[in-house]
Amino acid sequence: MKIRVLDFETTDQADEKAKGKTVGIVEIGFTDVDGITGEVSPTESYLVNSGIPIPPQARAVHHISDDMVKDGLPPDEAYRLLMAHMEPGDLFCAHNAAFERTFFAGGVHAWICTMICAKHLWEEAPSYSNQALRYWLDIDRDMQWPTIAMPPHRAGPDSYVTAHILSRMISTHHPSSLLQLTNTPVLQKRVMFGEKHRGQLWADMDRGFLEWVLSPGKNFDEETRRTARHWLNKQSGLSGTPFA
Q1: Alpha-carbon span 36 to 171, nearest angstrom
Q2: N or C: which end of the chain has fewer CB within 10 A?
């Protein structure tokens, strides 16, 4: 079983694309991982010319310019490369897979999200970005070609780092378990916002705080709201799914 770890650099964020804005890919990177042994293969990366100007705020992240991509691959050709040599039963993977899947569905192949899996497996991690996990797990010592991991925020290096995070997960969990974790909603262990409550256990939060998080007009992400709803339900003695 092959797991192809993807990373994209783009002209804007996925949520802007979801709102109807035209957003393009400017670079793809992928690194294959053996789903049984966790062995990491060499990385491939390609610049992509989506025909969409790269704004300064995007360049500030990945430092890719319009001039750099003018001879890049057309998007359709880049997508074909991502599908090349993918066999039945092979998987795709990305860190925050929802982002990559906004641009590339991956056909019939299922996806592993290493960020979601990390939240389930490593509750004490200080952060769940791939670079933070890289150093927290000290995965550089596992890298056969450490220079490939640099610079950050480029598609090839980021896919290589994520591939090693995945490999570390495979050392203790079969890919089928990682697929299951990917599709299991995350409950946060600790509050991750606010000067007063940051770092405290959600289990210790009082009813007033939980109701405040869930009150209309509060713009918390769904994961945070789900966690607050779970603990409010627990305090109310409600039974059933904790994700209701």
Answers
A1: 9
A2: C
Tokens found for residue 35: 């789903």
Q: Round to whole Å and give the CA distance between 231 and 10.
A: 37
CA torsion sign for 115, 116, 120, 124 is positive
Q: Give the E-state strand segments of 21-129 in sequence order.
A: 25-34, 40-47, 91-94, 111-113
CA distance 120 to 182: 9
Q: Report the Cα 27 to chain-centroid distance in Å.
A: 16
Place of tokens 């000290």: 138
* Domains of the chain as residue ranges with CATH: 2-182 (3.30.420.10), 187-244 (no CATH)
What are the DSSP E strand ranges found in 25-121? 25-34, 40-47, 91-94, 111-113
In this structure, the number of other CB atoms found within 10 A of the CB of residue 144 comes to 10
Q: What is the pLDDT of residues 144-162, one digit of tens each?
A: 999 999 999 999 999 999 9
